[in-house]
Amino acid sequence: MKKVITYGTYDLLHFGHIRLLERAKALGDYLIVGVTSDGFDRVRGKINVQQTLMERIEAVKATGIADQIVIEEYEGQKIDDIKRYNVDIFTVGSDWIGKFDYLNEYCKVVYLDRTQGISSSELRADKRKERIGLVGGSLNAMAMLEKFEKESHYVNGVEISGICTYNKDIAINLKNLPCVTEQYEELLSVSDALYIISQPENHYEHIKKALEHGKHVLCESPITTEVSQLQELWDLAERNHCILMDGVKTAYSIAYNRMLVLAKSGRIGEIVSVDATCTSLLDFAKFDITKCWNSISAWGPTAMLPIFQLLGTKYDSCSIVSKMHSESDNFDLFTKIAFEYPTAVASLKVAQGVKSEGELVISGTKGYIYIPAPWWKTDYFELRYENPAENKRYFYQLEGEGIRNEIVSFVKAIQGIEFSYIGKDVSKEIVHLTERFKNNRHRL
Ligand code: C2G
Prior knowledge:
Elements: E1 3-8, H1 15-26, E2 30-36, H2 38-43, H3 53-62, E3 68-72, H4 77-84, E4 89-93, E5 108-112, H5 120-126, E6 130-135, H6 139-152, E7 158-164, H7 168-173, E8 179-181, H8 184-189, E9 193-196, H9 200-212, E10 216-219, H10 227-239, E11 244-246, H11 254-264, E12 271-279, H12 295-311, E13 317-324, E14 332-340, E15 345-351, E16 360-364, E17 368-371, E18 380-384, E19 392-395, H13 403-414, H14 424-439, E20 442-443
Parallel strand pairs: 1-2, 1-4, 2-3, 4-5, 6-7, 6-9, 7-8, 9-10, 10-11, 12-15, 13-20
Antiparallel strand pairs: 12-16, 13-14, 14-15, 16-17, 17-18, 18-19
Helix pairs in contact: 9-10, 12-14
[cytidine-5'-phosphate] glycerylphosphoric acid ester binds near residues 8, 9, 36, 93 and 120.
């Protein structure tokens, strides 16, 4: 019996896939089809597959062409499968010509002509695109806006409609966008959704206007500077059937999410302390601090994220200490916050005028989790125990600092498929502490 194997994602199964499977089957007597797992697709850069693994397997099964279906979970698995199932022929479409020649060592490799004029990407892209408008002008925002624009090209189903900015440099850097304007209304008129990274004190006005026009919003955290405003905006979003999503990019990274569930599943015992540090040094000669996010706004939400996601938002007490910029009553060079929970403690250090080790340590009764600097864009973490032989290391590919996944989640939230990774209680507490920082802090 001649055994044939082929692999694919088979998202939104179409005529091209079916023709490939039919011809693959005709090469032998028995066809094994490897369907890629969601995790493997993410690792190989396919992040916006529309259907779940089960749906894709069911679709392949329904063709009646496959004799056996296996799940492809890791790079290199093709060699293992060929050996394990005693395969005679490996086949795949001609878009992969040359890429799998290395399998000739194990079996015959056949590239079949790809069917022209149809692909899953085109089917995904055929769905109406969400036009996302960008809003922001500060120097902190500049790099982020450019990254956001760049990362949007990796996500099907979105296009950047334009940018509203007062900053001439940003306008020049993004001049190729369809709409570059200082008039917010103009951007709103060509957008379905907005990514807002304006100064935090302007978020409220920008979000409110967007929601009033029925536009979805992804806003860089803190969403507002006052809790009452946040509640008002959530109510407005609900009335107008809009998404208002919190944009801490770390929340959307795979390694961070895997770390959260491991920590919550008791792998380090009871969590007793969470300590997060995020710093970056600004060149104050270049930066006008009145047009710049202060340290608590720029870094606070990221540092608060693991604390609130692991320990919750119901702490007993918290103290805030800051070292302020000599020329400002609002710009903190450095802020440290210490929390006391009923059975745990936490601390964060954030700074744009002081440098420190940007690590995250989660301490438990059986061990601790260590994420080295810069933990907020990590692809790696470690579980560490008293006996080092028990230590475990975890790696997960990180594409685009989490921004790519964040855009995918935003689009899926708009489509009603997925919801924000950041709970409302967490977003609210971030805003609450930002508000508290203004009114109640110690100065160094
Ligand atoms: N295909 C085709 N004609 C099309 C589209 C796809 O012949 N118009 C083929 C592809 O060449 C592949 C199979 O259908 O052999 C599945 O395609 P995808 O779902 O896009 O999967 P792909 O990313 O090509 O995965 O490990 C995974 C494999 O390497 C291939």
